[in-house]
Design brief:
- It is a single chain.
- Helix 2 runs antiparallel to helix 6 and helix 8 (160-178) packs across helix 10.
- The chain contains ten helices and no strands.
- The protein has one domain (2-222).
- By secondary structure, the protein is mostly helical.
């Protein structure tokens, strides 16, 4: 019964924390043709689970390394802009093999960067039991797959959601930067500052992404 309750706790925690992963996957595969998109979603969800299991034993230590979360936050901001530009390209214009592996690479990078703090909650619920962690995360794969599929279809129907998704990644990147140990030690920003910086990054990602997408559009039309 204890094993079952702990496994259920991990499933619930992972379902609550899987939104960022589903969003990144949906943005990354949006520019792929339908068949490659389905493969990319399943592969991305599987990679997310494998990375979380692998990170469990070192997650707490990683969060204490100065500058690591700053680098991770900057990487997330870059990924937000890159997937926004790629996702704005119609699927039939993209070279499928290259775009497929590019999408998988974005998913792996983003998940590796964003999963560290999420893993701590799962590790706490499992009390270090690797089988429990693997069970809970494996059960969450269908949720990530379904969420990513739904989000990618919504983005097809409502392209404005691409910018909203990229903006949310901007907030995630800002939160990572502001929670880096060196930032908290030297600056220790309050809640008001955090909200202001995160809001500014959301707007910046959307505006810069929109400008870059417009610049890339004529190049795509000319080809």
């Amino acid at each position: 019964m204890h094993f079952l309750l702990s496994g259920l706790s991990i499933v619930l925690i992972d379902l609550l924390l899987a939104g960022d992963n589903a969003l990144v996957i949906a943005l990354a595969v949006r520019s792929l043709p339908p068949r490659e998109r389905r493969i990319g979603i399943v592969g991305g969800a599987g990679a997310a689970v494998i990375l979380r299991v692998a990170l469990t034993s070192v997650a707490a230590r990683l969060l204490q390394i100065e500058y690591l979360q700053i680098a991770g936050g900057l990487l997330i901001l870059w990924i937000a802009l890159k997937v926004l530009i790629d996702a704005s390209t119609p699927p039939d214009r993209a070279p499928a093999p290259k775009r497929f592996w590019q999408a998988i690479w974005y998913i792996v990078l983003a998940d590796l960067t964003m999963s560290t703090d999420n893993v701590l909650a799962i590790a706490g619920a499992s009390k270090g039991n690797l089988w429990l962690i693997a069970f809970g995360l494996a059960v969450s794969i269908p949720f990530i797959v379904l969420s990513s599929t739904l989000l990618s279809k919504l983005m097809d129907r409502f392209p404005a959601l691409l910018y909203l998704g990229a903006g949310i990644l901007g907030k995630v990147g800002g939160d990572m930067i502001l929670t880096d140990p060196i930032v908290e030690r030297l600056w220790n920003p309050g809640d008001l500052v955090r909200y202001g910086v995160e809001a500014a990054l959301v707007i910046a990602v959307i505006v810069v992404g929109r400008i870059l997408c417009r610049r890339c559009a004529p190049q795509a039309d000319s080809t």
